[in-house]
Amino acid sequence: MSIASSLYGISGTILSNLFINLPYPETKDDLSDKIMIVTGSNTGLGFEASQHLLRLGVGKLIMAVRSVEKGEKARKELLQLTKRSPESIEVWHLDMASYESVKSFSARAIAKLPTIDVVLANAGLATSDKFSMAEDNERTITVNKSSYPGKFVIPNSATHYWAPIKELIPDEKADKIFSRLNNPEKSIMESRYYVSKLIVLYITREIAARLSASEKSSVIINAPNPSYCKSGLLREKQESTPPDFMARSTEMGSRALVAGVLAGQESNGQYTNNCQVRDPACHVTNKTGAKIQTALYEELVDKLEIVAPGVSKNM
């Protein structure tokens, strides 16, 4: 993490949030036959993005939520707001902190849906300083990273600009990267959310590069930054929450996510800010970043192969 990169990320966030209105989502494309999955869609950014997608005419929206009860309540509200038919929205259970839940959701999607055109993986968590495990990863890493169809949109953050990379640098003499992240004695929880977003960006870039090299794939994967919004993301970090005047509304932030959904091949493997492709932090693109990116991807595939044997053949 360089000082210049940190200053660029921080100043860009402040200027964007205070002075830039994101373009209102519009498209000339016919989305009436498209099936889209939005995780965390019962509230905040996910709810607002879902409303935009329904307004734009998406054929079927799958609301992937931890609480089906809260999801059904949000579904009724979306139906009222968008005047769409009841069959256009379904609520499915998905807990991104549980591998079994992700596998169950995936099996259901494969069995029930004729196709999946977009996955907007919105659910995230900005953790407190408390270390806690979810499956075999520290909880922030599991929720923000591990769970993988069209187009795959994974929200990112300018916080990756000031994320420390010390925990991520490959070292043959030390434990593997995820093992270090999962060690409560060595973990730096104050910066864990920033690091999780950096990991997401590394893996997004590596998957995009590998898929682009395959003639069998037409998948686009991108990482839009909705910026800091008035949402429930920082529910565990109340003491460090920035002031409200610096925050975008969740509707404004959701425009960035929908722009990622509507973006074309130019966005593949890219970090976007204010609905435009932007250069990520230098520690993403330099030689050290390239080593981290490859190591993280290989470790992730190994972990996923244990969770779902054979998954690596699809990656």
Architecture overview:
This protein has 315 residues and is an alpha/beta fold. It has one domain (3-164, 189-280): NAD(P)-binding Rossmann-like Domain (Rossmann fold, 3-Layer(aba) Sandwich), CATH 3.40.50.720. It is 41% helix and 12% strand. It has helices at residues 3-19, 44-55, 68-82, 99-112, 139-145, 177-181, 192-212, 250-262, 282-285, 287-307; strands at residues 35-39, 60-65, 89-93, 118-120, 133-134, 137-138, 151-153, 220-225, 271-273, 276-278. The strands form two sheets. An eight-stranded mixed sheet has the order 3-2-1-4-7-8-9-10, with helices on both faces. Strands 5-6 form a two-stranded antiparallel ribbon. Helix 5 runs parallel beside helix 7 and helix 7 crosses helix 10. The longest helix is centred in the middle third of the chain and has 21 residues, at 192-212. The radius of gyration is 19 Å and the shape is globular. The protein starts with a helix and ends in an 8-residue tail after the last helix.
